Amino acid sequence: MLNSIHISSQIVNKVKQLQRSTAKGKQALDHYEKIVELMRNNGFDNIELLSKRTRSGELRIQNCIKYDLGAGYRLISIKKDNQLFLQFLGSHDEADGWLNLNKGFIPCHTGNCYPLNYTIDTTIEQSQQELDEPENLEDEYEERLLNALDDKLLQQIFSGICEQR
Fold it and tell me: At a CB cut-off of 8 Å and minimum separation 6, what does 36 contact?
């Protein structure tokens, strides 16, 4: 039984991009949203969801499942215990490149994933609020990184530019 679904920040950003995209991009976005809704409402192993998987499995990452979104787009998910991590959304070639770069990848709870509570009764408003939350988390993360930077570190990084005379 699936307890929770985690969506990576890459997918959140790609969804925003596809909302402003061409008809094919919007079609892929509709398929993505339908798949997530099926996962949330009917669980992970329902027949309708199984039919959306790609024909060939994925061996580069253990427990990886690819979904065909149509129009040349793919959704890559990884199941770990009772959790599902939606890791990547993009074109077929982008997905293949992501899989090559992330061979053996094991998902975990990090600042790059945002949990969506798995519940049977969900509304569009709740899912929209959950998608809005990651922006705040990203801003906090960036703020912490910027606070960690000081002049000495910047001089080390850009030593060729900041040559002391």
Answer: 5, 86, 127
Structural domain includes residue 165: no
Residue 133 belongs to a domain with what CATH number? 3.30.2310.20
The neighbour count for residue 81, using CB atoms within 10 Å, is 9
Per-residue pLDDT tens digits for 98-138: 999 988 887 765 545 544 444 333 333 444 455 455 555 55
Paired tokens of 121? 């009764």
Q: Is the pTM of this model over 0.70?
A: no
Q: What is the pLDDT of residue 103?
A: 87
The boundaries of the domain holding residue 141 are 4-157
Cα 53 to chain center, whole Å?
A: 17
